[in-house]
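Question (not urgent): is this output format expected?
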Amino acid sequence: MKTITLNNGVSIPILGFGVFQMSDFQECKRSVLDAIECGYRLIDTAASYFNEEAIREAIRECNIPRQELFITTKLWVKDTNYEGAKRAFETSLQKLGLDYLDLYLIHQPYNDVFGAWRAMEELYEEGKIRSIGVSNFSADRLLDLTLYNKIKPAINQIETHPLCQQISQNQFLKEQNIQHQSWGPFAEGRGNMFANPLLMQIGENHNKSVAQVILRWLIQKEIIAIPKTTSKARMKENFEIFDFELSFEEMEQIGKLDQGVSQFFDHRDPKIIQWMHDR
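Got this back:
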């Protein structure tokens, strides 16, 4: 498995497994066990996914040494303040059955982000978290956080796929030495992603699926991907992307698919902020 070295020296797999919307305990546990069996070592969850306990059981049963796993979880909006972050971190750690986290992210750029970050810096310095970062932060919010705090975020996890490529954000992250990580690499099939003629043709060129082409495109751009599926067959398929390479021309062609807008929602929309507060 190819790895990326974060700005604090910690190595993270470039391909991981996401568990968003896996709220059923047994389904989530089985899916994580299947993913680990397929070779995944990066598992990405969040407090708001309500499945940290299922991941704990999968970790206990997988027979993989803890140090070989990379576990990420995230701090939800209601707890995004100093005291809330300390409390929520301990709750997540207990639910996951772990002594430390590999990566802890502020899930959304709302509430007292600075207070939460100070708490996370302290947890990092105490050795309870190996790396800290954010999710869904725009460049301006991320730079504000970076300039006025001691520890720079290691990662920004943002919606990234062929229809929303985050081109300017990607360049900004490179300039800041902050790792770009993709959530929703397939956009949940929105925009007719899996039937896109160009992606299908490129897949035919390499005897690969559209999903494999998308993941390969991401990792060639040095963007970490965390695809989610409950199908073991698709887990295996998603993992089989290290035996081919997209050409420069194919990468350029995929680049032209960018629409520059989210397939889900705008984090600067007041209605979205209200919805996340009420969730």
